[in-house]
Amino acid sequence: MASDVDAVPLVGRADTVAMVRAALLDRVSHGHTAAVFVNGESGVGKSRLLGEVAAGLRTTGAVVLAGTCLDIGDASPLHPLLQALRRFESEVSHAHTCAAVRNLLRMFADETPGREEAGTLLERVSRGLHLIAQGRPLVLVLDDLQWVDRSTRQLLLYLLAGLGDMRLSVLAAVRAEALQGAHPLRRVLTELRRLRSVRVLDLAPLDRAGTDQLATAIVGRPLPPEATEQIWRRSGGNPFVVEELARDRRDGREGLSDTLRQIFLDRVDALPPHAHEVVHAVAVGVEPVEHTLLARLVRLPEEQLIEAVHAAIAHRLLISTDNGYQLRHRLVAEVLEQELLPAERCALHRRHAEALTAEPTPLHHARSAHHWRLAGQPVRALRAAIAAAAEAERLHGYAEAHRHWSLALDAAADTGLGTPERINLLEKAAEAAHHCGEHARALTLLEEQTTLVGAVTSTLYIRRARYLAHAGRSALAEAEYQRALDAPDCTPANGPPPPRTWPNCCCTSAGTPTPAAGPGRRWHCPRRSTAPPRRWCWPAPRSASARPTWRTRTPACR
After folding, report:
1. Would you indicate the residue range of the signal peptide (predicted)?
2. Which end of the chain is less packed: N or C, by CB atoms within 10 Å?
3. Contact 214, 221 (CB under 8 A)
4. Where are the domains of the chain?
5. CB count, 10 Å around CB of 52?
6. Which range (98-107, 158-167, 469-478) has the least confidence?
């Protein structure tokens, strides 16, 4: 899964490149063999890393032979070595070295070795490589080693055991998801791990900073935060996927490219049947999906379920965390969703919702609402969203409560909810928006509530004044408070807030100072006081020379 490596810089791998070069050169400089096997998922940058390290080793004077294994089994023995020799022959200019390369290639052309000649062949290949190196370090670079043929596997074991009498390094890349079951390379790597000269490196995806840097380099300009967040979330840091998504954005292409879609579909199709079902269940769910929830979704005996999960993880499609399972790339969910019929999609979401409802906990309400909505069950989605919002408010998570109340409003639109119930939802959604700082949204919801109520009460005026004050619009807030005083229903039972509390809320929340409260300094509501004025205003100083003092907002302001 290599991309055009000449078009983009190598990002986030400088330390890894330096470490691999050091691991290969240190032991070889003392006359020993060394090997680094780079293990990682498709597209993580193994081939690019091999190319970068090989280029650096050439500058040190090492002889680098680079070849790629093919997915043809044992049909072409020693194919990567033959390919590497032919490439090197076209590049080398030294007469003695060129002659040694041709002699080794001629030996391969003349011989048709049988099983009994394997040892002799390995010795002759080793001797030929020794003549090519001519005392210099020799580096074998082998890509896609998961497809290596039997003869090449034997050659690696022979050379890395120190039987070749040369300063040899091996640098190879292995596609991790391909090493399943009884793959022959697994046994070879197990044997090689015992050697002190061998190191197996698990190449991880890029981190967030590396992902942003790579995407920016491809697009050619800084990307907005929402774009980089989307690329990071969809790619999971996989460099190949980052490059594809960034190029699509740069070229103005919408949706998912056919290249990525087919790659991920092929990887899912390669799964065993039960693992296929597990990946579909996790893809539809809200991650992470707990093991107990997965067991209710995928009705398999426990041993078979664990085996299926192991297979999905081994194929680099799932990752396991302390909280459950999640997809390595969210793009898998997008790809699988496009392959489902609408009826299939609804059925999967209904199964998730029913499984969550079967064992209700406060943390499941939000996920239940999500699945009931996508299952086409707005009444149940509304009920779950209200429960999720109430739970978020109990934990003072007002941003989450605002989101859940908004989802409840959306669900209510599809249920034919009565006007009183919708007014109640709008009131709660507006209060949650206000508490989480979304004052403009709170005002919009309040206006919708006012439209449904019909007559504007003093309570609505006061709430609007409070939202405006916290939004920094104190002049409009003062006008709304005056309307509350003038409202017909402004009585001692349901009038404005008590003295001293409202001015602090209305003015100081926006940074406007309020006068200190002291004897004779009170805010007047005409229906709470016998004072004749019907306007609220700053209380007059007790003497012409006295001036009001100022103070900051008090904790009583809400």
Report:
1. none
2. C
3. no
4. 14-112+119-202, 210-362, 455-551
5. 19
6. 158-167
Which of 115-124, 215-224, 332-341, 396-405 has the weakest average pLDDT?
115-124
- pLDDT for 111 equals 61
Q: What is the mean pLDDT of residues 45-55?
A: 93
User: How many CB atoms lie under 10 A from the CB of residue 543?
Assistant: 7
Looking at CATH, the fold of the domain delimited by 14-112+119-202 is given as Rossmann fold (3.40.50)
Distance of CA 29 to the CA centre of its chain: 42
Q: Give the pLDDT confidence score for residue 346 in this predicted structure.
A: 92
Whether 90 and 82 have beta carbons less than 8 Å apart is answered as no
HSE-CB for 14 with a 13 A CA cutoff = 4
Evaluate if residue 252 carries a pLDDT over 70: yes
DSSP code string of 285-352: S-SSBPHHHHHHHS---HHHHHHHHHHHHHTTSEEEETTEEEES-THHHHHHHHHS-HHHHHHHHHHH
Whether the CA torsion 345, 349, 352, 354 is positive or negative: it is negative
Alpha-carbon distance 136 to 119, whole Å?
25
Task: Return the C-alpha torsion angle 287, 290, 296, 301, nearest 10.
Answer: 120
Q: Pick from 166, 203, 207: which is nearest to 52 by CA?
A: 203
Q: 113 by DSSP, 3-state: which?
A: coil
> 399 burial class (0-12, 13-18, 19+ CB within 10 angstroms)?
middle
The residue count for the chain = 558
- Token pair 């269940």 is found at 281
Give Cα separations from 18 to 6, 22, 58 (angstroms). Answer: 20, 6, 14
